[in-house]
Recover the amino acids of this structure.
């Protein structure tokens, strides 16, 4: 005896019998959500792509607390007047006064300038620019607030000097403000286009407006939930983009399914209340399974310790929860009240049964006649499109995420291009010398520095008692006391002979060498390259558990839906295959730089380490969304007729148009997100849009019916013990029964329409 879904029947009964009550509750909750989520953008954080428990993170915390001059987050790039030089007396005097004025700010520590230190690396090669670096104390939120307070006083013309501001804080602040601006623009683009697509799909304005309203309610509700989450943990600023895209996309997908099924039920002569109840019990079951599969895929990101991924998992799960609840409660209530007015304001004729045209069935029949050829050709094409991913290189995001017009990026680019001996070539090594005398600490530092200086790729190691080079030591001290002992730590600075980016492959190899040579001495190696090495290691450790969780949970859910052993395996395999084009495009376009000019971004030669994980979880979940739509309808027809081939054709005919429409709508939403000026957001938007279109137009339309034709009735096979388990535990809707007596009375118009 299978387990029923009385919860859906009870929910549907309550909704259709008291629609005004549910609508009033929804309006109150949405207004509360608007108020609660109003300050969400101010509570989001940038970053979170490093493992907080890693060796590099421990080094970073010590450097921030005890060596602020080694970790500047504020950079002033000072340009001298035309015809002058940074060493001119008048210019130098103004530069010193500017640095002193900055050092008098209460929140600023560790001010270092060219005019105070004479360090050549702080002056450009042509002598027309110089750098003042400092650190603003406090957490991210407090430091950014201080930056916004300080920036107007120091940016622009300062006497004869011109100042531009950059540094980690400025880059972070510009990314967040750009994301917020781009998000507003993407919503203004996506909503009208989505409404136009839905008008084309439904043929009427009223029916098309309902999914958009459900999507807006979902986005607002999710914003409120995320505001609550920010009270307990950090949430990435990119969660806003994901919330908008998934909120609009999933809510519209579910609303499409609900509205389409409601119109089908009306077409059979049912009155609105009975049609809505039947819709909740049938399409609602599909929505529940779909929501579970998408939530499972997104929750895999909770396995990883990086809060960037974890916070996006919180955002995604919140979206799924709000979208499914809204689609199963608020939307049916609106449908009951609208009744047959759902077809008001028609702009084109539609089929009375609301189904796809017969051409969809003819295409499926043609594919099934040539199933072996279609299977081999489509599979081969998708594998070829995914080949570029074999050459993927993983890195970390920097200021090149910003558009070229950004001040923070322009300053960093100028420092990289116009200055010599930038700190990109140095790696901090922290020695733990707690309890040791100063003489013992110096001796330990000297011994380890001498050992590290002999490693391949090391130019020198700087410490307070000299600069160590391979084979000898210079007694000339470094300009800064870079190994002063504070709170039981001593800092060494390893300078690499490689002057490429701080996270390059050469610097990552150097980090591995330094750790191998100093691990027995209890030293910690930090810096940008070490953070990247640790992040990749954390993701590598989490991949197997995350994939295992997604696969096992997905297989279980599809088994409970279908009772088959082969269909869950097939669904997972085809979902994975549908992602190959996305991953291939990520490398070919964003890593290698093809199409960088028309898409307006700067290729960095690598892919941000966390992005493939995020894109996999989102795209896999959305692919499962469409897979559940299709398999649920095929299963429903197969249970009714017992004819495998006709069930596939009929399932494709009834859901093919729905899946295509949902994919077009979702791709519009993600493409609008992809128009962002931030490269990672652009990659997420365009990549997921491509995956959605490939899944709906290629995999679901061609590959699924072809493979199901090859499998035949074997697709529904399961061993006897599992069949018994499915009969006992599978979730099914209850068989048809008369509508409950407390449903609203039909109007005379509805009774007349039903009799016709």
């Amino acid at each position: 005896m299978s387990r029923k879904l009385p919860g859906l029947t009870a929910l549907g009964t309550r909704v259709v019998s008291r629609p005004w009550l549910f609508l009033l509750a929804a309006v109150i909750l949405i207004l509360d959500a608007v108020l609660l989520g109003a300050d969400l953008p101010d509570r989001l954080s940038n970053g979170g792509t490093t493992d907080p428990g890693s060796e590099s993170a421990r080094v970073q915390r010590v450097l921030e607390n005890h060596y602020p001059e080694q970790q500047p987050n504020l950079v002033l790039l000072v340009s001298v007047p035309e015809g002058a030089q940074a060493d001119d007396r008048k210019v130098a005097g103004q530069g010193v006064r500017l640095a002193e004025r900055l050092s008098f700010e209460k929140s600023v520590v560790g001010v270092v300038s060219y005019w105070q230190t004479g360090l050549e690396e702080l002056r450009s090669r042509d002598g027309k620019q110089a750098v003042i670096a400092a650190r603003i104390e406090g957490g991210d939120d407090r430091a950014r607030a201080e930056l916004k307070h300080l920036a107007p006083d120091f940016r622009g013309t300062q006497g004869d000097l011109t100042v531009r501001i950059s540094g980690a804080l400025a880059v972070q602040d510009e990314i967040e403000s750009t994301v917020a601006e781009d998000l507003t623009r993407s919503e203004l683009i996506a909503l009208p286009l989505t409404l136009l697509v839905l008008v084309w799909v439904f043929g009427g304005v009223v029916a098309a407006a309902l999914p958009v309203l459900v999507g807006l309610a979902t986005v607002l509700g999710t914003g409120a939930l995320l505001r609550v989450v920010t009270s307990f943990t950090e949430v990435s600023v990119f969660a806003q983009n994901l919330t908008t895209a998934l909120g609009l996309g999933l809510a519209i997908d579910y609303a499409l399914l609900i509205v389409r099924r409601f119109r089908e039920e009306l077409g059979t002569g049912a009155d609105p209340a009975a049609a809505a109840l039947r819709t909740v019990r049938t399409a609602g079951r599909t929505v529940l399974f779909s929501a579970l599969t998408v939530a499972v895929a997104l929750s895999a990101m909770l396995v990883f310790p990086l809060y960037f991924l974890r916070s996006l998992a919180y955002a995604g799960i919140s979206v799924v929860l709000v979208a499914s609840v809204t689609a199963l409660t608020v939307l049916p209530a609106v449908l009951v009240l609208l009744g047959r007015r759902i077809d008001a304001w028609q702009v084109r004729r539609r089929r009375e049964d609301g189904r796809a045209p017969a051409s969809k069935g003819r295409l499926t029949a043609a594919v099934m006649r040539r199933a072996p050829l279609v299977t081999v050709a489509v599979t081969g094409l998708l594998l070829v499109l995914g080949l570029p991913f074999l050459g993927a290189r993983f890195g970390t995001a920097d200021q090149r995420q910003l558009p070229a017009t950004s001040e923070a990026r322009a300053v960093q680019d100028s420092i990289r291009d116009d200055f010599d001996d930038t700190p990109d070539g140095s790696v901090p090594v922290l020695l733990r010398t707690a309890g040791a005398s100063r003489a013992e600490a110096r001796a330990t530092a000297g011994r380890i520095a001498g050992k590290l200086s002999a490693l391949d790729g090391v130019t020198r190691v700087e410490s307070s008692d000299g600069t160590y080079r391979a084979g000898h030591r210079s007694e000339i001290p470094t300009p800064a006391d870079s190994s002063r002992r504070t709170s039981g730590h001593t800092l060494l600075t390893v300078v690499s002979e490689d002057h490429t980016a701080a996270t390059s492959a050469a610097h990552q190899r150097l980090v591995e060498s330094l750790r191998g040579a100093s691990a027995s001495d209890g030293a910690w190696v930090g810096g940008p390259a070490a953070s990247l090495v640790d992040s990749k290691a954390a993701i590598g450790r989490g991949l197997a558990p995350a994939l295992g969780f997604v696969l096992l949970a997905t297989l279980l859910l599809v088994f409970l839906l279908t009772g088959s052993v082969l269909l869950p395996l097939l669904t997972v395999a085809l979902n994975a295959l549908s992602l190959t084009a996305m991953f291939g495009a990520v490398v070919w376009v964003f890593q290698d730089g093809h199409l960088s000019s028309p898409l307006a971004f700067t290729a960095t030669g690598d892919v941000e380490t966390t992005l493939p994980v995020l894109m996999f979880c989102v795209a896999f979940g959305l692919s499962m969304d469409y897979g559940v739509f299709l398999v649920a309808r095929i299963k429903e027809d197969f249970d009714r007729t017992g004819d495998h081939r006709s069930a596939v054709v009929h399932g494709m005919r009834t859901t093919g148009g729905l899946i295509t429409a949902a994919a077009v709508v979702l791709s519009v939403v993600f493409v609008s997100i992809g128009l962002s000026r931030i490269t990672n957001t652009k990659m997420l938007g365009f990549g997921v849009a491509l995956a959605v279109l490939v899944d709906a137009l290629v995999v679901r339309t061609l590959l699924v019916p072809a493979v199901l034709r090859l499998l035949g009735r074997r697709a529904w096979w399961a061993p006897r013990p599992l069949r018994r388990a499915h009969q006992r535990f599978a979730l099914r809707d209850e068989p048809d029964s008369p509508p409950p007596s407390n449903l609203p009375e039909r109007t005379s118009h509805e009774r007349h329409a039903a009799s016709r």
